[in-house]
């Protein structure tokens, strides 16, 4: 097998593993091998490993693995932060080492050497801002402030106290069991940032996702430009058509050009494929979070709404079924009434179809302009709520 096929297979396997790991639980992959790979990568592999270690080393080995899992997944730790720094640094280093020699080139000016460095630095600054800024920690000092900024909707949130922090729990907040603190407008705990994503750092997190998406698109486009420039500089098309007598059409030239690129510029091709895959994933992730931002919902609330809506639907169906049962019993008891024909009752509309449609009434959704405004300038940081705190005191 040629080196180009090894590279193509490598790219496809990487794509499959990354998509299965990140998106395998999505409904469209239900029952497919993508879902099975997702299960294997997220829990199946770990179960086999635990059993294998238990078989070899007994309970001491299993306990050691469980304590590593506890440290990695249930306690704050910088492992994923370090992995991010290594990925960013290694990718930029490989781009510099393999491609800067062709800058300036036919299509790229010298300024791209500095623009790319500046773009990576901005990405790193956004990472630091999201990781080390306050997500909106609630304590006894500032709780009144958050209580006035976030009123209860009495659907998902009602007056409650955090059983760990022993302070009132403002609406939209959640106690993060990893960081052991209550966080305002809690979205999720992000392992990559080793921080919660909450009211105060959601804007940095969104900017981080959007910037890294553009960074990957920029990297992919820059490598495409470099390779296109090399083709022009080395007169590849001219050599192929004049010296090798290949027909001057896209169909005839494309396989030869691809073969030449894969054999001469395999590092750049690998980097380009990697950046393109990551940019697609980041686009999906940013799109999801932008939708949450526009509708003023959090990741935590999407799960709460799902539970609430399915519970309401079941409740309505149970109510309708009970009423239908009651009606049919009283119908049977009525004397002298002609029985309903079997055909008629067969085609009769199911009473469950009359069940009230459950709608999501999110009182925090105030239109996309104000919703975006709340992300950019969090409610608890606004003067009006600061004044209400002073007033309450
Ligand atoms: Zn708490
Ligand atoms: Zn947390």
UniProtKB/TrEMBL annotation:
GO molecular-function term, one example from the UniProt record: protein-cysteine S-palmitoyltransferase activity
Position of the signal peptide: none
Primary location group: membrane
PROSITE patterns: DHHC
Cellular component terms per the entry's GO annotation: endoplasmic reticulum; Golgi apparatus
Enzyme Commission (EC) number: 2.3.1.225
Palmitoyltransferase DHHC domain boundaries: 158-306
Enzyme class: transferase
Keywords: Acyltransferase, Membrane, Transferase, Transmembrane, Transmembrane helix
Domain of life from the UniProt record: Eukaryota
Descriptive protein name: S-acyltransferase
KW Nucleotide-binding (keyword) present: no
Subcellular locations according to the entry: Endomembrane system
């Amino acid at each position: 097998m040629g080196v180009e096929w090894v590279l193509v297979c490598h790219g496809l396997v990487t794509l499959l593993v990354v998509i299965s790991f990140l998106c395998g639980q999505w409904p469209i992959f239900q029952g497919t091998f993508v879902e099975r790979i997702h299960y294997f990568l997220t829990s199946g592999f770990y179960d086999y490993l635990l059993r294998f270690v238990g078989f070899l080393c007994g309970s001491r080995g299993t306990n050691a693995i469980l304590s590593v899992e506890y440290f990695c997944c249930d306690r704050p730790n910088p492992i994923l932060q370090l992995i991010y720094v290594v990925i960013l640094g290694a990718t930029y280093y490989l781009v510099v080492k393999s491609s800067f020699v062709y800058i300036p080139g036919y299509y790229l000016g010298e300024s791209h050497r500095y623009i790319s460095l500046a773009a990576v630095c901005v990405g790193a600054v956004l990472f630091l801002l999201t990781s080390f800024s306050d997500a909106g920690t609630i304590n006894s000092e500032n709780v009144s402030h958050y209580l006035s900024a976030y009123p209860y909707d009495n659907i998902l949130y009602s007056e409650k106290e955090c059983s760990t922090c022993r302070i009132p729990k403002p609406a939209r907040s959640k106690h993060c069991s990893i960081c052991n603190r209550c966080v305002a407008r809690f979205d999720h705990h992000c392992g990559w940032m080793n921080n919660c994503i909450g009211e105060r750092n959601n804007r940095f997190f969104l900017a981080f996702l959007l910037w890294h998406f553009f960074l990957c698109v920029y990297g992919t486009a820059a490598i495409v430009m470099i390779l296109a420039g090399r083709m022009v500089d080395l007169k590849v098309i001219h050599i192929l058509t004049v010296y090798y007598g290949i027909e001057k059409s896209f169909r005839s030239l494309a396989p030869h050009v691809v073969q030449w690129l894969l054999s001469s510029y395999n590092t750049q091709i690998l980097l380009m494929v990697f950046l393109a895959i990551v940019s697609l994933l980041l686009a999906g992730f940013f799109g999801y979070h932008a939708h949450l931002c526009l509708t003023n919902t959090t990741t935590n609330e999407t799960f709460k709404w799902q539970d609430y809506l399915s519970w309401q639907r079941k409740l309505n169906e149970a109510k309708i079924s009970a009423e239908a049962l009651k009606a049919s019993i009283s119908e049977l008891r009525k004397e002298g009434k002609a029985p309903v024909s079997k055909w008629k009752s067969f085609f009769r509309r199911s009473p469950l179809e009359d069940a009230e449609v459950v709608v999501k009434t999110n009182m925090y959704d105030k239109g996309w302009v104000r919703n975006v405004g709340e992300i950019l300038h969090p409610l608890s940081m606004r003067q009006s709520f600061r004044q209400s705190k002073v007033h309450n005191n």
